[in-house]
Amino acid sequence: MKNFALIGAAGYIAPRHMKAIKETGNNLVAALDKNDSVGIIDSHFPDADFFTEFERFDRHIDKLRRENNGKQVDYVGICSPNYLHDSHMRFALRAGADAICEKPLVLNPWNIDGLQEIERETGRKVNTILQLRLHPAIIELKAKVAASPADKKFDVDLTYITSRGHWYLQSWKGDDKKSGGISTNIGVHFYDMLHFVFGKLQDNKVHFNSPTKAAGYLEYEKARVRWFLSVDVNDIPAEVRAAGQRTYRAITADGESIEFSDGFTDLHTVSYREILAGRGFGLEENRVAIETVANIRNAPISPLTGDYHPFVT
Length: 313
Ligand code: NAD
Prior knowledge:
The chain is α/β, with parallel strands linked by helices and 313 residues long. The chain has 12 helices and 12 strands. It has helices at residues 14-23, 41-44, 54-67, 85-94, 109-122, 136-146, 167-170, 176-179, 182-198, 238-242, 267-276, 287-298, and strands spanning 3-7, 27-32, 49-51, 75-78, 98-101, 126-128, 154-162, 201-209, 213-220, 223-230, 247-253, 256-257. The longest helix is centred in the middle third of the chain and has 17 residues, at 182-198. It is globular, with a radius of gyration of 20 Å. Nicotinamide-adenine-dinucleotide binds at residues 7-8, 10-14, 32-35, 54, 79-82, 84, 102-103, 129, 131, 185.
């Protein structure tokens, strides 16, 4: 049984990590969050220690390590806001643990280089949650693409609208410096998946970028991709909205729909299983997606010529 600590334990995604720790037969020994709304811990690990101050958490983790009585932390799960991930990963590695970090791993590619140095210094590893790589529909698509003729390029449309209320722009998620903005915070899942399935990134154009929506064109070895992301409920197609839906997710490759709505939420446990078996996705595997989002954040807006997503007008 491995011991875990969790940073960002009061947030939205933290319970999935707690569930994954439990479902893989392991133990949460300590948790940290600035916010003390963490009653959820009792549903999973009522004996876990909890801290609202980093310094006290650090002292506790260090004490567990020095006592060396089987309670030292083996893994630190990181569910804090995006701009804090690199700092929290450094803490984990220096504390003698491996890290399991949420997406986006970091905001800029050079943060990856710094973390690789610390991996070398400490001999510990950063693992990341790239859950779409573990989705059966995506694995199937990757196999189909791999089996296609070498010069084949798929025409892919990716539309993802996941409505958020007014809170979104008031929270760290609406602050570019903290989340990277919508393409970094939400799009990163998809840019990583596209690279995983379609190979090397060859072109990256941005057609629209605002706090609530973004769109662009990405070209990979094996695909031309028109993408559109939004957190604005008004972008949901009228017939879907009329049915009461607040999320619209569509991916097509050569006009054929790729269905991956089901099973999207249960992949944390699968990710943990893979990590515990030594098959976690490491720092380098995140590089292309992090380069993609950094470019999207800084790119000039391209004119609407050539391939662009039909939702951009
Ligand atoms: P959230 O705002 O609900 O939770 C973040 C938590 O971190 C909050 O409880 C906050 O109090 C805490 N926090 C802030 N600063 C801290 C600090 N210095 N030390 C300790 N705790 C601190 O956000 P969330 O939606 O749970 O997102 C957390 C992370 O998970 C983000 O990186 C996000 O991108 C990622 N995420 C991943 C998925 C996925 O499907 N893999 C889904 C949602 C979010």
